[in-house]
Known about the structure:
With 249 residues, the chain is an alpha+beta fold. It folds into two domains: 17-80, Winged helix-like DNA-binding domain superfamily/Winged helix DNA-binding domain (Arc Repressor Mutant, subunit A), CATH 1.10.10; 90-244, Chorismate lyase, CATH 3.40.1410. It is 27% helix and 32% strand. The chain has helices spanning 17-30, 43-50, 54-67, 96-103, 157-160, 165-168, 173-181, 199-205; strands at residues 70-73, 77-80, 90-92, 106-117, 131-141, 147-155, 185-196, 212-222, 227-236, 242-244. Strand 1 and strand 2 (77-80) form a beta hairpin. Helix 1 (17-30) crosses helix 3, helix 1 runs parallel beside helix 4 and helix 2 (43-50) crosses helix 3.
Amino acid sequence: MTSFAPDSIVLNRKLPLWYQVSQSLRASILGRSPQDPLRLPTEEQLAGHYGVSVLTMRQALKELEDEGLITRHRRRGTFIEPGVQRGAPVRLLGSVDAIVAQQSGMVAKLLEHGSSPVSGELAEYFADVDEVATYHRLRADERTGEPTNHARNYVRPELAERIGLDDLARWPMTKVLRDLVGVRIGRITDTVEARLADPETARLLQVPLLSPILHYTGVTYDEDGQVLDVAVIHYRGDRFSFTVTLDAD
């Protein structure tokens, strides 16, 4: 049986190591193929993979266990929970892997893609181009099929040539740009607002008109400060909450 192989990450020493490891593992678990095994490697093997202590690894696994993604059994090992509900809080702690993890475990349907002129709202981000590539996707829980959010991404046109549409059905744009297109992400600025569902959002997310939603805007920059992608996402208010953790340092 093929062993579970979580993604490798470069750990940021300014963030709690257990958190970064848990988010990387979460993304790997939710992005796994149905035929992949449910049993995880041992704590020692995972700790060696990430280059952290066993104590840090245990703390990361406890976070996933508390969330209901895994179960741990003495002497038998650690197993991915096959019936887990993928809807989860929106959590922001400064890690790109946290954003990847947030949107993994969902299936995405590409509603439309193409190009559009840079509108007034986007002009501050794309001052040097006249058009941007656009992608509109509807995400749903992969087990229940229930819609969870719909997202529009506005991407620099020169990157669009390297974005595979099939990849967007599985992965969030952040992962596609970083791991598949190969750009080096410097930072992501996130804004979350409480809004009411407009007619399009109500129809796509199957919620009543004017029901509460979370309106998220994420701006992705490269290491030189150039904007790569602007994501506008509408989350169902009954499926997501918003949590921010601040490091005292």
